[in-house]
Amino acid sequence: MLTPQNEAALAEAVAAASGPLRVAGGGTRPVGNPVTGEVLSVSGLTGVTLYEPGALTLVVAAGTPLADVEAALAKENQRLAFEPMDHRGLLGTEGEPTIGGVAAANVSGPRRIAVGACRDHLLGVRFVDGQGTVLKNGGRVMKNVTGYDLVKLLCGSYGTLGVLTEVSLKVLPKPDVTGVVLIEGLSNEDAVRALSMALGSPFEVTGAAHTPVGVDGDPVTMIRIEGFEASVAYRLERLQDLLRSFGTSATETDPEKTAAGWRWVRDVEAFHGAPGDVWRISVKPSDGPAVAQALQAEGLLYDWGGGLVWARVAEGTDVRAMSDGVRGHATLVRASEETRRKLGAFHPETAPLAAISKGLREKFDPRGIFNPGLMG
C-alpha cells in the first residue's frame, strides 16, 4: 500500500506508478465494480487548511476523517448541509470515512432535496492527475469560484479522473430546531402523494421519506422541517392541516429522536446486517411505488419524496431488467464481487455519454491507472 504523507509525495507516487492504482480514502465505501491494483491511500493527507466561519467556507485535506470535519464545524454551530451518508453499517466496513471520499463519490443524504448534493457545496479542489501533475480548480472562498464545471466533474468520479488532495466547501449554520411530521399506516402510493404535497408546499421541507416497515413494524412517513423555534412550530401545524386527508399525524421535536430518525433514513439502517443485494434507484417520484412493486423487494425505503428508492433484493437480482421502460437509473451499492462483475455496479451509459466519459478519462488519466474498470 502506498501512503504518501503530503501532496508532493502523492504526485511522485502517481508519476512513478508502473501499474494500476486502487485509490482509497478510509476504505469505508467499496462501491463500484471490483478493481485490482496497488492501493494508493490519501489517509496521510489530513488537516484543516483554512476555516472561516463568518465566510461559511472550509478548506481541508482530502484524507481528513469526516468526523473531524464535522467536529470542527460543530464548535461553530455549523454543518455540512448535504448530510453525507455513512456507508459502514450498510456495507459492513470499518475504518473512518474521509472528506475526500465524500467528495469523490458525491455522497449526499436526505437533505439533498432542499440544499443540493455534495457537488453543489464544493467551491474548489486540488488533485493529482494520471501523470502525477498537481492541478487545482475553483476557489477557496465563495466569492472566488472559477472553473466550477471541473469541480463538479471531479465530484462523483470515484477517483477515476484524479486523486483529490484538498477540497474547499461551503458550510451552513445549524438550525435552532428540527421538527418532524409523522404519519403511520400509509400505502406506498399514498405516502408518495403526501410527500409530494409536502414538498410542493411553502413550508420549506428538508426531508421527505417513507418506509413500509418502520422500527415498530408499521409503515411510517416522515417529513422534516428545520429553522427557528417559532417558525418550525407554525410550519408543523400548517403542514399537519395540509396533510389531514391522509389521516392522523403526530409531530416530534426532541433533538435526539429527530436526529436518530433521520440518521436511520440517511444510512439505510433498516438494511444493516440483512441478507441480499442493495440497490439505489433514482426515478421520478410518482414512478417509485410502481418500480418497487415490480422488484418484489425484500426491503424498501423511499427518500427524496419517492425519487430515491433503496431496495433490498435477492442476491443476483437484475433490478434494471425488472424496471425496463421506466426512466431513471439504478446503482448496485451492495453485492458480491461476482454479481458486481456480472451486472455492473453503475447504470450503463448511452453511447454518446460513454464516448464523452472515455474522452475525459483519456485526458485526465492517459495511462488508465486510476481505479480501472470501477465505473465500467
SS strand fraction: 25-35%
What is the CATH topology assignment of the largest domain?
Answer: Uridine Diphospho-n-acetylenolpyruvylglucosamine Reductase, domain 3
Approximate shape:
globular
Radius of gyration, in angstroms, nearest whole number? 21 Å
**Low-confidence runs of at least 5 consecutive residues:** none
What's the oligomerization state? single chain
Biggest sheet: strands, sense, closure? 5 strands, antiparallel
What is the helix fraction of residues, given as a range?
Answer: 25-40%
Number of domains: 3
Please name the CATH architecture of the largest domain.
2-Layer Sandwich
CATH class of the largest domain: Alpha Beta
- Helical stretch tally: 13
The sequence of SSEs as H and E is: HEEEEHEHHHEEHEEEHEEHEHEHEEHEHH
Q: Kindly state the number of beta strands.
A: 17
Overall residue-averaged pLDDT value: 94
Class of secondary structure makeup: alpha+beta
Can you list the strand order of the major beta sheet?
A: 3-4-8-6-7
Terminal-residue CA separation: 24 Å
